[in-house]
Amino acid sequence: AGDETVRHGFPYQPTALAFDPVQKILAIGSRSGGVRILGRPGVDCYCQHESGAAVLQLQFLINEGALVTACADDTLHLWNLRQRRPAVLHSLKFNRERITFCHLPFQSKWLYVGTERGNTHIVNIESFILSGYVIMWNKAIELSTKTHPGPVVHLSDSPKDEGKLLIGFESGTIVQWDLRGKKADFRMHYDEAIHSVGWHHEGKQFMCSHSDGSLTMWNLRNTTRPFQVTFPHGKVQKDGRKESCKPILKVEYKTSRNSEPFIIFSGGLSYDKAGRRPTLTIMHGKAITVLEMDYPIVEFMALCETPYNNEVQEPYAVVVLLEKDLIVVDLTQSNFPVFENPYPMDIHESPVTCTAYFAECPPDIIPILYSIGAKHKKTGYSQKEWPISGGTWTLVTLQMLYKLKTSKVFEKLKPGEGRAAELVEEDPFAIQMVSWCPQSRIFCVVGISAHIILYRFSKYDANTQIVSLEVRLQCESEDVISPSENENNPCFSEPGSHSPQPHHQHPASPGAGTPEGVKDSIPLKDRMVRVPPGYQAELVIQLLWVDGEPPQQITSLDINSAYGLLAFGNCNGLAVVDYLQKTILLCMSTLDLYGAADPYQRLTRSPRRNRQSTSGLTELSDNQQSIDMERSKSPTSGNLLTHTHTHRHTHCQCIVRENSFSRSRSSSVSSIDRDTKEAITTLQFAESYGRKNDPVPTPCLWVGTSLGVVLVIPMSIPTDQEERMEEPVTIGPSGAVLMLKGSVLRFGFLDLMGALIQSPYEVWRDLNAPENPDRPRKRKLVNFSPSSSQDTCGEGHLAVVCSERQAKVFLMPSQSCLFVHNITESSFVLRADVVSVCNSVCLACFCANGHIMTISLPSLRPMMDINYLPLTDMRIARTFCFTNGGQALYLSSPTEIQRITYSQEMCDNLQEMLGELFTPIETPEAQNRGFLKGFFGGNANTFDREELFGEASAGKASRSLAQHIPGQAGMEGMKVAASGVVGDLARARIALDERGQRLGELEDRTALMMTSAETFSKHAHELMLKCKDKKWYQF
């Protein structure tokens, strides 16, 4: 359990790139030691080096199903890609030298490794042991040279003769080393530092790129100086001198049968062009094309038809790895268009602030979102198929369906306009929360500027005017209400008759404050606008500025399509909006929601209470008799009014769980004073019981606060469609008051049999569809009332409430607490969700200390506790979410989504769901070189590396130079891994056995599993003996 399934998005802080031209798979290494392997769309595999050291270089064993990685801790690793989850077969750690460059010739089992000291070592890929053959720097360079040539920056074998190795040193020295003769054939010197080298396929000449922005061409016939020096971007100035240019960090020199060679390089622009974007230059004959990139280039690589370096290369594309993007350019068309990237790599297009994860969506929603999203795609891409096409499809994929820009609802801000934009450090439109009802397709977005946008989905475009509601949800330090103000306010003194007055839609709700308060909010588009098909904004709710002070950010939100209501809260109070009638039903401070039933007795401290006024957001008139009467039982008083007043505002010192990981909160009554602000931390609409004596469930709003208090507010909603649009929704005074330790995070509702009760919803209907007189569009509601399915087991339902520290299960309507479980004492819960796993329901929790826990429902028995993440940062805390089927996800880096499973059943199925990276493909044959050419073309084919580098001739390498480490994927680790996996499996299966199982059955299962563990271990041992002498690629 707690198994990482797959990672989506762009590899964060990429460092290296490699491509297998036969398998057609791409590998990207990162600074944190991650490796992403990509194939055809849907083939995406993530591996991680245990050391976490940055990946410096990647080398595929072409068409062998293996990959060599060189890391910044001077360790080489060999990864086996012939299994669904790649693993390290061998590692080799260099102790005395730092690795700077690696080269593995095609179809060779000897890897050349260049070091910072200028030496070149040779590693056997099969055994991962160093050869005794070493090319020392002082032997490679001329003895007369007095200075060290610098680190090795290039290694390659000559296309004409594999027995010749070209070594490039940083200082500008190039040596061709005769491997058989163990001597240098020639040495070349250039005054500028070398960054890269590229051969012509015939092996008679090569090109170098340098730190002064120059390209030099060298011919093997004359090694004294380059026969050509060019500064592709350096113009000659008036005084005759060349412009100084930036280094050309890499050059590739690729030949083509039917045209001039391609020379592709990065960098080399002149220094005087300030602010120029990073560039990739493609020189093809006399044509020079400069491609400007949005981000710095990390690495690029030309994709060629042949894996052989001595054949015409025929480049057809170039892969460009940028700091925050991956681009593939089509070289077969003269305008060099880019391919459309099929991977979801632009998750980070703007920084991700929140996530929501939905499993088991209605089947029609995905195709419709995809078809509408596809209409907004950019054009001008290459028409050819994506060239990275290896591997076989995996069932665990991520596909971008649809994008929505919420800023389009607002007017464009001019520089310096709107104080909201100035005060918010982030983008004023940054999204804090989302709420989506897949059935009704209603979507809500909460923005950082304390605004909420409600969207409806339509397949048709429309002319629409967005309705705006403005809400004042502010707190103040003292009661400053004059009697004259009081007289003008209606009072509801009879319980059950609380029908708030509808609010004006433009420009603000009553008592919204001064015009100054209005203009500080981000201005909305207040005209008719044409909106395309897809999600269309219908309503915008903005919290108002008061006396120049910005509103507090929204901390909780819930929307219910069946009720047509939206509720939200912050550290000051709660508001409920009827989005069908576009009215504000309730706008009240948290303290006033309690009426007379404040568990912390804060109401009694203020003598001004008796003047029928509140220090909150709204007027509240309590019948004194009902206050006294209700003190001893559940409250039925606390009448709600909707008129607000402009009061002096003081900044709330509110505690919101998103903001900090370390805080101390005491829930004891003595520490809660009159001024303690209580944030609304969670909200949920449900069919429930507002009071103990309610005979039937009614629509209710469950409210959870930062002080661990749960309030249940009953509502009366007209059921007839016409009445619902005309008659007001009435909200009763708060009913049940329940208590927990710590801030309330999540509600869940079960029937008396323990099955999950879904929230009621409205079935989606397209409001912009053409009218059909035969089928009038009526609201179709689906209700999961707890009483409708339970005639046999009596009335009522179970309410699951989870806070930062504990979980409780209450029986409703009696409000009696059936089960309590203290989840954590030393940490606190960041995220909790009631989810269905393996045909049962459980509470899944993610703690700040990185633990993932599952707790059975309704019995609240701990089932699983894994220390999944050793370190939790704010990004993970903000984005972690669970869903059904034992799945969860979070943002593992600013650009990547990590999906995990915490269900053993899902873990078992996952192996079948993952695709294959390696597919058996015949290696293309080398082109027939012809009899005469083969006869006279030197003895390249007779070069035997084994004879040169093997232990028999080269001897053993110094033991202190490098240390061989067998990988966990090797046969050595199989037996240990097998017993460990079975142990984990047994523990997880036992833990995940849902409620009601007898202990005897568990013991039988345990015994059975121990037997199967022994059998598994035995088979693993047999397999190890069987495979002991096989080569790694035969597994």
TrEMBL record:
Transmembrane segments: none annotated. SUPFAM superfamilies: SNARE fusion complex, WD40 repeat-like. Residues 970-1030 form the V-SNARE coiled-coil homology domain. One of its GO terms (biological process) is Golgi to plasma membrane transport. PROSITE patterns: V_SNARE, WD_REPEATS_2. Its main location: membrane. GO terms for cellular component: plasma membrane; SNARE complex. Residues 612-627 have a biased composition (Polar residues). Keywords: Cell membrane, Coiled coil, Cytoplasm, Exocytosis, Membrane, Protein transport, Repeat, Transport, WD repeat. The keyword Repressor does not apply. It holds the Pfam family LLGL. Residues 481-520, 604-644, 768-793 are annotated as: Disordered. WD repeats lie at residues 187-228. It is a peripheral membrane protein. It is found in: Cell membrane; Cytoplasm. InterPro entries: Lethal2_giant, LLGL2, V_SNARE_CC, WD40/YVTN_repeat-like_dom_sf, WD40_repeat_dom_sf, WD40_rpt. GO terms for molecular function: GTPase activator activity; myosin II binding; syntaxin binding. Belongs to the WD repeat L(2)GL family. This is Syntaxin-binding protein 5-like. It comes from Dicentrarchus labrax.
